[in-house]
C-alpha cells in the first residue's frame, strides 16, 4: 500500500495552529506518511511534528469558510488547526484519520525511522536474559534457564528463555503450562538477595468447576519453598471474581491442593474499568468550569487515584511478604499479563535498589513488561480521547508509571531518574519512532524482526546527553527497601501527565534549575577544594622542615 | 490570661526590644506614605472612634475629622474606610472598612464623602471598586437589621461587587468536616475525596483566593478598592492580605509576611482570642479564618516555588503559635486590649523569635529576580490546582509524608557548600603561605568531606522508610478456610502487620520538639498551657 493513496491533500498554506497557553502560529501544513507537520517557515518559531500514531481522535467543525480540526493526542495534548477551505479541511481530516489507524504494524513509523544519532549501545542487545541470569547464578544455584519455549509453542506470550526451579524439567513445564491460562506457567520474576526469597508470576490455574489439579504445577511452585516454609499466592482479583472465573474454566489455587500456600486476594480492576477511569479522569482535567465541587466529584468518580492506591497497596503487600515475612510469593490474576505485572514490577522497585537506577529500570521494563508479554499493542492502541468502542485498550502501563511516580515523590532522592523519564515512557508506549513497545509479545516482535528493522528506545535513551536530561540531580544511592505510604493524603494527581498541557511549566522548570544550580555549585567547590588539598599536600612534602619529626 | 504569659525570666527591657523589631510605622513608610495623597490620622488615638481599630490610621489627605467620625457612625463597630495598602507604582490603594448601616434606604453624607476622597486620592482612576466579600444573600439579609451594602446610586463612581465568601460559621463547620476526614485511619480513596468535597474546604479556599486575585488585579490596573464584609475583621482581613501577597513581592519575604499579618490581622483587630478559642469562650465565635489565609499563601507557594523567601515550615510554625499562645502576639482581640495587658512587657514576640531562627524558614529555591516572581503573581485558579494541605492537616502523621525531603537534602548541600567555601579560602591562604616558604609545623586536619552530605539527613528518616505500612486491609477477603488454619509463626496475620503499622505511627509525634509542638493539631481543642506557667507574673 502506498501512503500517497491516503494523502488527498499533502499541503495547505495559511493554516493557523492553536495550542493552549501559547500564541497561535500561522504556517504551512504538510502531511507525510507518518507525520502531520506545521511549519511557519520562520526560523524562530518551533515547528509542529506530530506522529499520526499519536493521534487519538479528530473532530472537524466549520466556522464560515474556515474548517477547524481539533486533534486530540494520545499524550493527552489537544491542538486546533484552522484550515482555509472546506475541501482541504475534509481531506486533511480524513487522511489523518486513515493514517493514524493503520492496521499493519510493519507500516508504522518505527519501520521507516532512521536514527539521526549514532547508536553507541544497541538497546536490542542491552538486556539479554543470559546476562540477567548470570547475576542470579552468582547468588543462587537453585534456578536454571529453560528454553522450553524457544519456538513460542508452550506459551505464545512468554519469551524463549525463562528462569525456573532447577529441579523441574522441561516436560513438567509443558504439563504445568497446560494447567495455566494462556500457557503461562509459574516462572521466576525476582530473587530477593537479602533473604533468598523469590517472587514468581503466572496466569490463573485452570481448575474449573470440578477442581482440576496438576501435580507438575504443584511441584513447580512448591520447589521454590524452603523446607517447612510457607508461601503466599497473591491473586490480583477479588475473591468473588476469582470464584466466578471457575465457571469459565479458570480458578485459583485451592487450599487442599496447595497446603503450603496461603492465598491473599487483592481487588485490582480489569482493563475495561481502567480505560473508563482514564477517560473520566482526562475529561475532568480538561473541564473548563471553575467549580470546585464538580472537579472533586469528577476526580473521585474517575477513581483513578483509587486504582493507584489499590495497585500500590498490593505491590507493597507482595514486597512485605518477601522482605518482612521471609516468604516466597506467587502473583497472578487472570491472564497474568496486566495487574500481575504491575504488582511484580512495583514490588521490585520497592525491594531492589538496582531497579531504581536508569539502567536497572530499563531492565525491569524489559523483563517484567516487554519479555513478560504485556500486550502493549492492544492496550495502547487508543488513549483517553478515543470515541470508538474500547476493545482491549487499557492504561495498565500508565497506571504502573503513575505508581512509580508516587513512590518517586515520596522518595525523591532514591531514584537515579526523574519524572521526565516516566513521562517519556508514557509517550513512547502510545506512539513512538522506536520499536521497543511494538507488538503484544516477544513472539510477535520476533516474527516482525523488530530488532533488525527498528531502533530500540534504549539506544536513544542511553546516550550521555539524554541520560543527563533524564537524571535526577537529588539521587543518592540508597540500598534499602523503601516502603511508600498508601494513605489517600499521600497520593497525588500526576500533574506532569494529566495537567501537562493546561499549565505553564515555567515555574516548575525554574525551581528545578535552581535545584540543579545548588547541587552543581557544591560539586564544583568539592572539586576545587580537592585540587587545592592535593596541591597543599605536595607543597608540604616538598617542605624539608615538615619531614623531620 | 496570666497563664499565657509564660516566660518571665528576661527583663522587660529585652522584651520591649523584641517588640520593637516589627514596626508598622516603618511599613507604611515603605509603602510611601504619608504623602501628598494620604495622611496619618490620630482621630482614633484613644480608641474613641472605633475600639477595634488601631490608634494610628491613614486616610485621604482631604478628609476632616468630622468626615471620619460621621462615616464611622455609619459603619458597623465604627470601622470607617481606611487605608490597608498603598501601591506606590500607580497610586492605587486597598482600603478596608465594615459594612455600612444603610438598611434599605439610609444614607450618610460623610460616608459618601469619605469614599469620594478615597477615589480622588488616586488621580489616575475615575472610578473605584467596592468589594463586599459576602455572598449577596447574606448582605441583603443584613439590610433588614439596618446594615447592608453600598447603593451604587448614592456613591459617585463606584462599581460594586460581591465576592461570595461564606461566614465564620460555615468555615468552622467546613474545617471540622475536613479534619474528620483526614483523621480517618486508612480510608479508601473515594471516601477521602468525597469527604474532602463535601467539607467544601477547598471551595472556600478558592473563594478567598479568587477575591484576592480580583482586588490585586484591580489595583495593578490602577483602580482603588474598598473591601468590607460585615465587621471587616475576618473576610476583609483575608482578602486584603491575599491581595497584598499577590501584588507586592515584599510580602513574599520572611519579614514581609510577618509585617503583613501584623498589619492586616493583628492591628486591624482580627479577633484572635475568639477565633482561635484561646480562652474557653463562645464556640460560635471560633473560626479558622487565619488558617485559610495561611493556606492561600501555601497554595500560591505550590504554584510559584521560587517566589517566596519562606518555606512551608514557616507557615506551619506561625499557625502553631497563633493557637499555642506561647508568644504574646495573638493574645486578645484588638490593639486596645493588648495595650491594656502590657503585652510588650510581659510576653515575648513571635516575630523576633522567627526572625532569629530565619535560616530554618528559608526557601532555598527563592529567586526574587526571576521575571515571574516579581510584581503581580498570576496564579492558575482552576480547581485542579488546589491541593489538600497534608503538611498542615496531617502534620503529625509522619508516615504520610515523603520519607525523604528535598528541602532537607538541599539544606545539607547548602551547609556543606558553606564549609567548602571556608575550606577553599583557608587552603588558598595556606598554599600562598607555603609558597612563600614559610614553615608550617602543624597542619590542621581539614574536615572530612568524603562522607555524603546527606548521610545525616537520611540516617534519621530511613528508619521510617524501612517500616512497612498497613497494606493488609484486604485480609477480610481471604477465603474462610484460611481462618481455620492454626497460626504458625510463619504465617502473616493481620494483627502482626497492624503492629508494624502502629509502631510506625507511634513515631508520629515528635518527642523531642517540645513546646512548639504542644499546640494541638485541631484548633478546636483547648490549647495546651505551658508547663512553666507558675512562673508567670
TrEMBL record, chain A:
GO terms for biological process: negative regulation of autophagy; phosphatidylinositol dephosphorylation. Its main location: membrane. Transmembrane segments: none annotated. Signal peptide: none annotated. CDD domains: PH-GRAM_MTMR9, PTP-MTMR9. Coiled coil: none annotated. The keyword Kinase does not apply. SUPFAM superfamilies: (Phosphotyrosine protein) phosphatases II, PH domain-like. It is a peripheral membrane protein. One of its GO terms (molecular function) is protein phosphatase binding. InterPro entries: Myotubularin, Myotubularin-like_Pase_dom, PH-GRAM_MTMR6-9, PH-like_dom_sf, Prot-tyrosine_phosphatase-like. Gene3D superfamilies: Pleckstrin-homology domain (PH domain)/Phosphotyrosine-binding domain (PTB). GO terms for cellular component: cytosol; endoplasmic reticulum; perinuclear region of cytoplasm; ruffle membrane. Keywords: Acetylation, Cell membrane, Cell projection, Coiled coil, Cytoplasm, Endoplasmic reticulum, Membrane. Belongs to the protein-tyrosine phosphatase family. Non-receptor class myotubularin subfamily. This is Myotubularin-related protein 9.
Amino acid at each position: 500500500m502506498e501512503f500517497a493513496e491516503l494523502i488527498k491533500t499533502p499541503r495547505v498554506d495559511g493554516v493557523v495552529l492553536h495550542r493552549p497557553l501559547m500564541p497561535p502560529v500561522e504556517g504551512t501544513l504538510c502531511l507525510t506518511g507518518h507525520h502531520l507537520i506545521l511549519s511557519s517557515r520562520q526560523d524562530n518559531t518551533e515547528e509542529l511534528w506530530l506522529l499520526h500514531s499519536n493521534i487519538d481522535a479528530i473532530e472537524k467543525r466549520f466556522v464560515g469558510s474556515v474548517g477547524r480540526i481539533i486533534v486530540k493526542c494520545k499524550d493527552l495534548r489537544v491542538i486546533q488547526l484552522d484550515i482555509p477551505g472546506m475541501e482541504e479541511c475534509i481531506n486533511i481530516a480524513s487522511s489523518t484519520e486513515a493514517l493514524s489507524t493503520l492496521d499493519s504494524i510493519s507500516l508504522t513509523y518505527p519501520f521507516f525511522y532512521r536514527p539521526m544519532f549514532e547508536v553507541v549501545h544497541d538497546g536490542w542487545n542491552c538486556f539479554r536474559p543470559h546476562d540477567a541470569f548470570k547475576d542470579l547464578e552468582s547468588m543462587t544455584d537453585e534456578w536454571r534457564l529453560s528454553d522450553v519455549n524457544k519456538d513460542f509453542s508452550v506459551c505464545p506470550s512468554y519469551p524463549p528463555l525463562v528462569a525456573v526451579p532447577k529441579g523441574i524439567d522441561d516436560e513438567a513445564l509443558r504439563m504445568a503450562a497446560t494447567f495455566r491460562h494462556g500457557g503461562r506457567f509459574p516462572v521466576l520474576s525476582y530473587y530477593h538477595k537479602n533473604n533468598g526469597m523469590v517472587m514468581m508470576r503466572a496466569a490463573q490455574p485452570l481448575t474449573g468447576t470440578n477442581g482440576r489439579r496438576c501435580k507438575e504445577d504443584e511441584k513447580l511452585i512448591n520447589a521454590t519453598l524452603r523446607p517447612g516454609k510457607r508461601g503466599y499466592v497473591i491473586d490480583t482479583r477479588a475473591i468473588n471474581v476469582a470464584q466466578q472465573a471457575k465457571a469459565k474454566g479458570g480458578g485459583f489455587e485451592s487450599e487442599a491442593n496447595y497446603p503450603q500456600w496461603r492465598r491473599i486476594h487483592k481487588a485490582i480492576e480489569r482493563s475495561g474499568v481502567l480505560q473508563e477511569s482514564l477517560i473520566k479522569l482526562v475529561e475532568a482535567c480538561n473541564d473548563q468550569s471553575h467549580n470546585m465541587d464538580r472537579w472533586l466529584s469528577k476526580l473521585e468518580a474517575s477513581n483513578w487515584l483509587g486504582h493507584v492506591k489499590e495497585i500500590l497497596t498490593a505491590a507493597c503487600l507482595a514486597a512485605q511478604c518477601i522482605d518482612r515475612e521471609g516468604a516466597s510469593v506467587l502473583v497472578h490474576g487472570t491472564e497474568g499479563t496486566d495487574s500481575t505485572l504491575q504488582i511484580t514490577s512495583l514490588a521490585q522497585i520497592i525491594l531492589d535498589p538496582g531497579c531504581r537506577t536508569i539502567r536497572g529500570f530499563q531492565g525491569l521494563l524489559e523483563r517484567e513488561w516487554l519479555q513478560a508479554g504485556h500486550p502493549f499493542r492492544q492496550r495502547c492502541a487508543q488513549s483517553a480521547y478515543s470515541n470508538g468502542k474500547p476493545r482491549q485498550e487499557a492504561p495498565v502501563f500508565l497506571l504502573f508509571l503513575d505508581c512509580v511516580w508516587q513512590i518517586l515523590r515520596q522518595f525523591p532522592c532514591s531514584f537515579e531518574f526523574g519524572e521526565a523519564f516516566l513521562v517519556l515512557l508514557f509517550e513512547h508506549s502510545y506512539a513512538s519512532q522506536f520499536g521497543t513497545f511494538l507488538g503484544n509479545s516477544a513472539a510477535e516482535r520476533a516474527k516482525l524482526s523488530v530488532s533488525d528493522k527498528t531502533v530500540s528506545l534504549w539506544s536513544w535513551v542511553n546516550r550521555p546527553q539524554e541520560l543527563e536530561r533524564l537524571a535526577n540531580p537529588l539521587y543518592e544511592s540508597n540500598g534499602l527497601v523503601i516502603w511508600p505510604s498508601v494513605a489517600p493524603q499521600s497520593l497525588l494527581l500526576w500533574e506532569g501527565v494529566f495537567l501537562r498541557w493546561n499549565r505553564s511549566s515555567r515555574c516548575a522548570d525554574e525551581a528545578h534549575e535552581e535545584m540543579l544550580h545548588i547541587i552543581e555549585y557544591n560539586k564544583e567547590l568539592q572539586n576545587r577544594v580537592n585540587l587545592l588539598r592535593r596541591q597543599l599536600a605536595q607543597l608540604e612534602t616538598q617542605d624539608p622542615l615538615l619531614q623531620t619529626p | 490570661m496570666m497563664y499565657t504569659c509564660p516566660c518571665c525570666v528576661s527583663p522587660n527591657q529585652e522584651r520591649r526590644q523584641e517588640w520593637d523589631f516589627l514596626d508598622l510605622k516603618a511599613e507604611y513608610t515603605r509603602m510611601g506614605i504619608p504623602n501628598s495623597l494620604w495622611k496619618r490620622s490620630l482621630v482614633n488615638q484613644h480608641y474613641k472612634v472605633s475600639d477595634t481599630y488601631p490608634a494610628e490610621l491613614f486616610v485621604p489627605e482631604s478628609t476632616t475629622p468630622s468626615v471620619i467620625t460621621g462615616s464611622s457612625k455609619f459603619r458597623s463597630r465604627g470601622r470607617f474606610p481606611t487605608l490597608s495598602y498603598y501601591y506606590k507604582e500607580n497610586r492605587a490603594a486597598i482600603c478596608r472598612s465594615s459594612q455600612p448601616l444603610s438598611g434599605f434606604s439610609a444614607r450618610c453624607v460623610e460616608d459618601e464623602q469619605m469614599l469620594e476622597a478615597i477615589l480622588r486620592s488616586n488621580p489616575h482612576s475615575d472610578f473605584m471598586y467596592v468589594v463586599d466579600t459576602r455572598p449577596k444573600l447574606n448582605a441583603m439579609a443584613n439590610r433588614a437589621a439596618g446594615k447592608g451594602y453600598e447603593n451604587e446610586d448614592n456613591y459617585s463612581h463606584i462599581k460594586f461587587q460581591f465576592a461570595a465568601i461564606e461566614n465564620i460559621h460555615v468555615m468552622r463547620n467546613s474545617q471540622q468536616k475536613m479534619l474528620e476526614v483526614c483523621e480517618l485511619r486508612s480510608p479508601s480513596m473515594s471516601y477521602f475525596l468525597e469527604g474532602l468535597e463535601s467539607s467544601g474546604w477547598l471551595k472556600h479556599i478558592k473563594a478567598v483566593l479568587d477575591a484576592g486575585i480580583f482586588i490585586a488585579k484591580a489595583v495593578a490596573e490602577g483602580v482603588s478598592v474598598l473591601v468590607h464584609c460585615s465587621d471587616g475583621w475576618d473576610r476583609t482581613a483575608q482578602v486584603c492580605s491575599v491581595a497584598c501577597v499577590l501584588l507586592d513581592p515584599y510580602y513574599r519575604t520572611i519579614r514581609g509576611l510577618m509585617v503583613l499579618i501584623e498589619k492586616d490581622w493583628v492591628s486591624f483587630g482580627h479577633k484572635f482570642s475568639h477565633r482561635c478559642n484561646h480562652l474557653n469562650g463562645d464556640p460560635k465565635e471560633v473560626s479558622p479564618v487565619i488558617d485559610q489565609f495561611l493556606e492561600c499563601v501555601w497554595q500560591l507557594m505550590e504554584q510559584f516555588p521560587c517566589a517566596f523567601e519562606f518555606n512551608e515550615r514557616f507557615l506551619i510554625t506561625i499557625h502553631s503559635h497563633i493557637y499555642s499562645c506561647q508568644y504574646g502576639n495573638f493574645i486578645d482581640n484588638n490593639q486596645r486590649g493588648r495595650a491594656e495587658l502590657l503585652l510588650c512587657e510581659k510576653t515575648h514576640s513571635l516575630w523576633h523569635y522567627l526572625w532569629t531562627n530565619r535560616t530554618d524558614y528559608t526557601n532555598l529555591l527563592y529567586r526574587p529576580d526571576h521575571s515571574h516572581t516579581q510584581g503581580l503573581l498570576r496564579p492558575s485558579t482552576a480547581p485542579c490546582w488546589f491541593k489538600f494541605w497534608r503538611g498542615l492537616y496531617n502534620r503529625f502523621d509522619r508516615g504520610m509524608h515523603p520519607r525523604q525531603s528535598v528541602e532537607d537534602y538541599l539544606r545539607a548541600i547548602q551547609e556543606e557548600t558553606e564549609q567548602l567555601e571556608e575550606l577553599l579560602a583557608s587552603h588558598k591562604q595556606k598554599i600562598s603561605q607555603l609558597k612563600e616558604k614559610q614553615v608550617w609545623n602543624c597542619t590542621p586536619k581539614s574536615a572530612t568531606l568524603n562522607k555524603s552530605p546527606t548521610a545525616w539527613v537520611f540516617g534519621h528518616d530511613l528508619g521510617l522508610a524501612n517500616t512497612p505500612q498497613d497494606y493488609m486491609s484486604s485480609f477480610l477477603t481471604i477465603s474462610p478456610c484460611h481462618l481455620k488454619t492454626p497460626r504458625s509463626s510463619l504465617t502473616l496475620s493481620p494483627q502482626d502487620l497492624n503492629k508494624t503499622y502502629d509502631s510506625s505511627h507511634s513515631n508520629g509525634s515528635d518527642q523531642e520538639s517540645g513546646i512548639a509542638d504542644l499546640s494541638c493539631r485541631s484548633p478546636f481543642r483547648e490549647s495546651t498551657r505551658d508547663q512553666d506557667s507558675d512562673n508567670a507574673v
